[in-house]
Amino acid sequence: MPYTLLRENIDKHIQFSDAEFETYSSFFYPKTISKKEYLLRQGDICRFEGFVTKGCFRVYTIDNDGNENVLYFAVEDWWVTDIDSFTNQAPALLSIQSLEDSEVLLINKKDKEQLYQQMPKVEKLFRIMTQKTLVSLQRRLIRNHCYTADERYLHFIKTYPKIAQKLTNLQIAAYLGISHEFVSKIRKKIASKK
After folding, report:
1. Which CATH class is domain 2-146?
2. What is the model's pTM?
């Protein structure tokens, strides 16, 4: 099942033959992560890129004032990493923590580089995925600058309903850049309109 999900994800971006996918997937290894366990801690070096096959992770940083700022949540069929730390093998600016019992398929930097050499399609695959990630981040930046807090919240729950159901007000607030009290007020306002 985990590798089937990986195949379905890859097929959205590029077509591999069965033999190519078998080679590609052989470079990944499965890892089970318990609820609240860290896949990566801020300050450590990120030695993996991961594909989530089960569960939910929060990818976040702690600022100088001790506030948590969530960059994104990664659920089943999402990729997870600290791309800066992974690429540059520098201390991570992000922590990656499981919000529930989770499973991931991981690939390390050396194996990914070997795949680039062995299978040119892999480089195209990750270029396409990187472009899609940049588009998503650009759209999020625009929303953060141009949308009201209410609009950001409504967009989040409409776009990611499965993720929103798994999260606390505090976690959603850390993602949206607002207080958890404000999230509670928005939820009450929405509930009163129904």
Report:
1. mainly beta
2. 0.89
Query: Burial, 9: exposed, middle or buried (Cβ in 10 Å; 0-12, 13-18, 19+)?
Result: middle
Domain boundaries, the chain: 2-146, 148-194
- Closest Cα to residue 70, out of 42, 51, 44? 42
- Long-range CB pairs of 81-85 (<8 Å, 24+ gap) are 81/46, 81/48, 81/49, 81/50, 82/40, 82/46, 85/40, 85/44, 85/45, 85/46
Over the stretch 38-83, which tens digit does the pLDDT of each residue have? 999 999 999 999 999 999 999 999 999 988 999 999 999 999 999 9
131 vs 129: CA distance, rounded Å:
5
